[in-house]
Amino acid sequence: MSESKARNLFIAVRNPADNRVVGEIRNEAPEAVAVTARELPLFQPEWEAIGPKGRGASLLKFQDWVSDNIAHIADVIQSQSGKTRAEALTEPAGVAGFVNYWAGNAAKFLADADLDNISAHAVPMGGRKQSGIGSRGGGADGIRKYCRPQAIISPRTPTGSRELVKSKSDA
User: Fold this and answer.
1) pLDDT at position 147, please?
2) Which whole-number Å values give the CA distances from 7 to 4, 24, 28, in the listed order?
């Protein structure tokens, strides 16, 4: 194998602050990424079967690992992003906080809902880049092309959300 092809097996990770190489990642072929993406859903039934409490316990183990490795995680974040040490330290602490929140509330959030008191709305979502306003450009045409409707499910308000959002059948 030529040196050129060997170099393409990995991608150098550079610190944007000083451009030095701080690591490397494997440069997977698009086909290998597609295979991995197709395999991921195979693990979903097992994850779902352990229920919210089991998933919460797994997340809390991850939280423990993050908490035990804050300095190392901050080192990696700082070297790969060019952030200051203070900025890099906020990220693992934030992850630990989010994990704690979701692990503690998942059972409540995933409990059977009162479907008679739920209102569903399809609204365009996606943000700046997906909307066509950002890097893809295109103005209104870009918005129509890239902005995908996504469902929003929310509890109905006592005043009646049906008055605020009309469905196609109301039009």
Assistant:
1) 52
2) 5, 11, 13
